[in-house]
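Table S2 (continued). Query chain:
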Amino acid sequence: MIPYETWREVISQYDIVVSATSAPHLIVKKDSFTPLHNMVFLDLAAPRDIDIALADHPLITLINLDTLQRIADENQKERECLVKESEELIKEGLKETSDWLLHSRMDAAIESLQQRCNRISADSYEYLNRKMELSPREQKLLKKVLNASLQRLLREPIRELKRLDCEEDQEAYQQFLKQLFQI
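Corresponding output:
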C-alpha cells in the first residue's frame, strides 16, 4: 500500500490510473493534482476516489462508474434497436419462405409436365428422323425446334401454376394435370 503522501509522485509516472478503493473520501482531488501529460483515470470506487472536477482538465480523461453506466445504457438501447431490426428481417424471411413453400407445392406437377413434354418431343423427333433423311445439322435443328415449341406452349400455363396461392386450387390443378396429361 502506498502512503497517502507519495500518491502524487506515483500517479504522475503513469498514463492510466485505476482506482478502486473503499475509502470514504476522495483520493485524488483537483486542487492537489496537476498532470504533466495526458492521463486516463478509471475510478471504479463507490463512493468515488477521483474528483469529478478533474474531468474538466484538458489533459485528463475521467472514466467512473457513471460513465460506464451511461455506456452500458447506450449499448443496451443499441441492442434493443438491433433486436427490432432483426425481428423485422426474420418476419420478412419467414414471409418469403412461407410464400416459396406455398408456391413450390406445384413444382412436382410442373416437373412432371415438363418431363412429359420432353418425352413427346423425343418421340416426335425419333418418328420424324425415321421418316426423313436428315443431315446431322438438320437433326440438331429439328430437336431444337420441337423442344422450343413445346416449351413455348407450356410457358404461360406454368407461370399461372406458379402464381396459385390457394392450397385447394393447387391440389385441384395437380389432379387436373395428372388426368389431362397422364402424368
